[in-house]
Each structure stands twice: as structure tokens, then as C-alpha cells.
Write a structure and sequence with these properties.
Pfam families: NTPase_I-T (PF01931)
Distance between the termini: 21 Å
Strand content: 15-25%
Number of domains: 1
Keywords: Hydrolase, Magnesium, Manganese, Metal-binding, Nucleotide metabolism, Nucleotide-binding
Catalytic activity: ITP + H2O = IDP + phosphate + H(+); XTP + H2O = XDP + phosphate + H(+)
Oligomer: single chain
Protein name: inosine/xanthosine triphosphatase
GO molecular function: ITPase activity; metal ion binding; nucleotide binding
């Protein structure tokens, strides 16, 4: 069985591999491919972030011969004047089914939100803030602001478990 992942981001690809291996007991080949989200570099709503995940999942199927593909997208959204992280994942099948799930949402500090509102992307803002390189492939903003209790990979593992559970349920029913 071949499974495509619509990113080469380490935190995301490792999350997909771990969750899929946990629940699918077949020989699996994973292929990570760079595909466009066809949304903003910095998605600014649940809707846009979800759409980016769906676009990535579908795009993996056009550039690979995988049975299904995953798309994962991180974004931000405003709620009552506070900027929150939002995260979505999608699974697209060759038969045209698309499943979606969302994950943890926590507020961002005002200084981070202000930089994003100026047009910067969260990843580079977090690199500057945390004085780290490529934060998005390691702890991510979620890891920094949860004191390391939940990193980006773990956050996506939870979303992917919700997603894969839906897929497996509807495939058998």
C-alpha cells in the first residue's frame, strides 16, 4: 500500500507515519511530496486552513500513484480579538472521498499576533521569538507555548488519529 503525504516537513511526515503504522497493519510505502496548498502562505481562518489541508491531500493523488494522500495545514484564526493557532488535516482517496479533522487551538501572545497581522508567517516569527531554527519542524508554536508538553508532531498525531479513525470506520461501513 502506498500513502502520499503532501509535505516534506519532518514533524508532519513523522506524525503521519507513526499514526498510520499504528492502525494499518499492511506493508506501507510512504511518499512525501511538496505540493501547493493553494491558500495563503499564512492561512488566517479555520476555513482557509482546512481548505489548504484538503488541497494538499488531493494534490498528492495527482502527483503520485498512492491509494490515498494526507494534507496537513497549520494556520491562525481570530476569536474575540485574540489570535489562536488552528490546525487541520485531510485524507483524500482515489475514489474522491475527503475526510477532515482539526486539532488543538491555543491563544498566541499579542507580540506574535501583531507580527502575523503585519503580514509575516508564523514559522519565521516563531524562529525569531524562540531563537531557534526551523521551529515548525520541531516543537512548533504549540510546543513553545505549552512549555514543551505538546509538540507539533504530537498535535498532528492527535488530528491524524481522528482522521484515520473516520476513514477506517466509513471504509468498513
Amino acid at each position: 500500500m502506498k500513502i502520499a503525504i503532501g509535505t516534506k516537513n519532518r514533524a508532519k511526515t513523522q506524525a503521519v507515519q507513526k499514526v498510520v503504522k499504528m492502525y494499518i497493519k499492511k506493508a506501507i510505502v510512504f511518499e512525501a511530496v511538496s505540493v501547493n496548498s493553494d491558500v495563503s502562505e499564512q492561512p488566517m481562518s479555520d476555513e482557509e486552513t482546512r481548505q489548504g489541508a484538503m488541497n494538499r491531500a488531493k494534490a498528492t493523488l495527482t502527483v503520485t500513484d498512492a491509494q490515498f494522500g494526507f494534507g496537513l495545514e497549520g494556520g491562525v484564526k481570530m476569536l474575540d480579538g485574540v489570535m489562536y493557532l488552528c490546525n487541520w488535516a485531510a485524507l483524500a482517496t482515489k475514489t474522491g472521498q475527503v475526510y477532515t479533522a482539526a486539532g488543538a487551538q491555543i491563544p498566541l501572545p499579542k507580540e506574535i499576533a501583531l507580527e502575523i497581522q503585519k503580514g509575516r508567517e508564523l514559522g519565521p516569527v516563531m524562529d525569531d521569538y524562540a531563537q531557534q531554527v526551523n521551529t515548525r519542524e520541531h516543537s512548533g508554536a504549540i510546543g513553545v507555548f505549552t512549555n514543551g508538553y505538546v509538540d507539533r508532531q504530537a498535535m498532528f498525531e492527535h488530528i491524524l488519529t481522528l482522521l484515520l479513525g473516520q476513514y477506517l470506520y466509513f471504509e468498513k461501513n
